[in-house]
Design brief:
By secondary structure, this protein is of the alpha+beta class. It has two domains: 114 residues, no CATH class; 120 residues, Alpha-Beta Plaits. The chain is 33% helix and 23% strand. Strand 5 and strand 6 form a beta hairpin. Helix 6 crosses helix 8. 37% of the residues are buried.
């Protein structure tokens, strides 16, 4: 069956339903979100504006539901759908491409069980992002002070365009701990994220900065999507360039793979079909990072 046109029309939910079982532990009770990029609009559906949607809710995706989606308007089949199926339809509109996100540390709360670092490559090439990700992991692994603050496992995610790094924590931290050690700012030259950026710059000869503000020619290490209320991209999400174009797929990678000069070309050649064939391999990488 066509992974993106399972019943003749475009429907990404069929594919997301297939990968959902492999995300149960990773997403756990995290709220799911979606982003649809239109010709002149962006539609973000999330738990702050809708009833929350969770990965376990994807269990209601079955053939009858998908066939009803394929050729009918919601008003014509509303009485044949459950509340969860109607909610899934709101988040993932039929015949629209959609990115798959989640609330990194829940939509609301006071603690965080993962530290999120986005490597924003801007106008740098993906190979530079790969070098940055590899060196960033190495600096974290050799940081002797960090284990006294947090216990963690590392998950590296190719987003479809660049890399995210997640520190999956053994014990949640509060906002004060995040702000003191993992946030960035003009008076935080010794913070974890700023110090890592400086180290990576020295080792790679690339311009790597900590922050959120974009600077031409620089790769940015951005930890601002860590606190509750911020979103991260799900593994196996499509990476949507515009209303008609998929330009990548998010998958986990290992530190060993970050040293492979052919990694980017392999990642850029991935398709929904190849992901499905190798889903168990990717799932093992995700599971190895869990608490």
């Amino acid at each position: 069956m066509d992974f993106l046109h399972p019943y003749g029309n475009l429907d990404v939910l069929w594919r997301y339903g297939k990968v959902a079982p492999y995300l149960q532990n990773f997403l756990w009770t995290k709220e799911v979100a979606s982003k649809i990029v239109g010709k002149d609009f962006i539609l973000l559906e999330r738990g702050t504006k809708n009833p929350p949607l969770y990965i376990k809710d994807f269990e209601v995706i079955d053939e009858d539901f998908l066939q009803l989606r394929a050729n009918n308007h919601l008003k014509d089949v509303n009485n044949k759908l459950t509340e969860k199926q109607i909610l899934l339809r709101k988040y993932f509109v039929p015949r629209k491409l959609a990115d798959f996100f989640y609330a990194t540390n829940h939509e609301y709360g006071k603690t965080m069980d993962r530290i999120f670092i986005d490597i924003d490559r801007q106008d740098n090439n993906a190979a530079d992002a790969q070098k940055t990700a590899r060196e960033l992991v190495k600096t974290i692994q050799t940081d002797k002070a960090l284990p006294a603050i947090i216990k963690f496992k590392i998950l590296i995610l190719w987003t479809g365009s660049s890399f995210h790094l997640l520190l999956i924590l053994g014990k949640p931290v509060d906002h004060a701990t995040y702000d003191r050690y993992f946030s960035y700012g003009p008076h935080k030259s010794e913070s974890f994220i700023t110090a890592r950026a400086n180290q990576v710059s020295k080792q790679t000869w690339l311009t790597v900065l900590a922050g959120h503000e974009r600077k031409r020619g620089a790769l940015i290490l951005d930890s601002s999507n860590t606190p509750p209320g911020k979103l991260g991209r799900c593994p196996f999400s499509l990476h949507i360039k515009d209303a008609k174009t998929i330009d990548g797929i998010a998958v986990p990678v290992t530190l060993q793979e970050l040293g492979d000069k052919k990694l980017i070309s392999r990642l850029q050649s991935l398709t929904p079909e190849t992901i499905r064939k190798e889903i168990k391999k990717y799932s093992k990488i995700i599971e190895s990072s869990q608490r």
